[in-house]
Amino acid sequence: MLMRGGTSKGAYFLARDLPTAPAARDELLLRVMGSPDERQIDGLGGAHPLTSKVAVVSPSTDPRADVDYLFLQVAVDRPEVSARQNCGNILAGIGPFAVERGLVAAGEEETAVRIRMVNSGDLATATFPTPGGRVRYTGDAEISGVPGTAAPVVIEFPPGEGKLLPTGDVRDMIDGIPVTCVDNGMPTVLVQATDLKITGFETPKDLEADLALADRLHELRLAAGELMGLGDVSDTTVPKLTLLAPPRRGGAITTRTFIPVRCHTSIGVLGAASVAAGLRIAGGVGADIAQRPDTGDRIRIEHPTGFLDIESSLGTDAAGLPVARRTAVVRTARKIFDGAVFPSPAETAPLPVLTPGGPR
């Protein structure tokens, strides 16, 4: 099933319809998406990381969840499939997909699906309308970066078990640049844009064309990965780098996020959750330029194509360190098509051909 989830688009599969061996699965998915090719002309991919994503869904063995969701990022221009991160946008389609495929029974008015994100072990609950026991995709919820409106998918994240501040410090210095490393579902490095000699209001295209900036961000990301306990991140997509600037359109902060080389045209859900949490930490990078609301949990994160609202609250642990208490977001999802995909020929051993009923 091809679905739009939030501001991303991807192919959603039942785990039983894919090869069980990761290498064979990844080879098949590269062919399905048309990678490596910058246009992905021979597959389902949309020639951008945001439209070259895969969700693999199965019944969960975890008593806290109904389904397991494995996210796979299929590279566009190289033969690489990564399972190193979650995707909160594709997550928006997991609940509807689980109902469509019969993994979860639909309620008469709405359905809540408990999801375990296999990549990290984190949990989420997605609630969406199912009048008459069928998923409804139409509605009046609007999210930036997606034309029109659709039914709301409310996603709530329980507090994670990992450290909100992976380095143990509110601020770290990397090459003379102050950063805040935060993980509220997505390892993220917060950097004030002016510290990199830019405004933070540039377009993604202009930022991507700045080769000196790209080199600086690369070095920052490698160093931050080591500080955050992620090891050598040169071949991974985490941590994300988010550049911060004052808000311009009534939100709390302006963001430009790198994923990790391309500049996001919006911002990922889990990345925004980490930004929102980071802005609530006294002394964190960006806290002094953010315009946080005086009351309530909602923080509006501005991005290149609009905004994303995150409900975020923090507390402290026994040692007095900040911890996430509540994180929630409203997204939308849409079923685009449902059927069989035919992988392109490959000069390797033949792999299963996908059919609506599974491989044969």
TrEMBL record:
User: Pfam families from the entry?
Assistant: PrpF (PF04303)
The answer on whether this UniProt entry bears the keyword Isomerase reads: yes
Q: What is its EC number?
A: 5.3.2.8
Isomerase as a keyword of this entry, yes or no, is yes
Kindly state which keywords UniProt assigns to this record, in alphabetical order.
Isomerase
As given in the record, the signal peptide range reads none
Q: Which InterPro entries match?
A: OMA_tautomer-like (IPR047687), PrpF-like (IPR007400)
What protein family is recorded?
Belongs to the PrpF family.
Name recorded for this polypeptide: 4-oxalomesaconate tautomerase
Q: Name one GO molecular function term.
A: isomerase activity
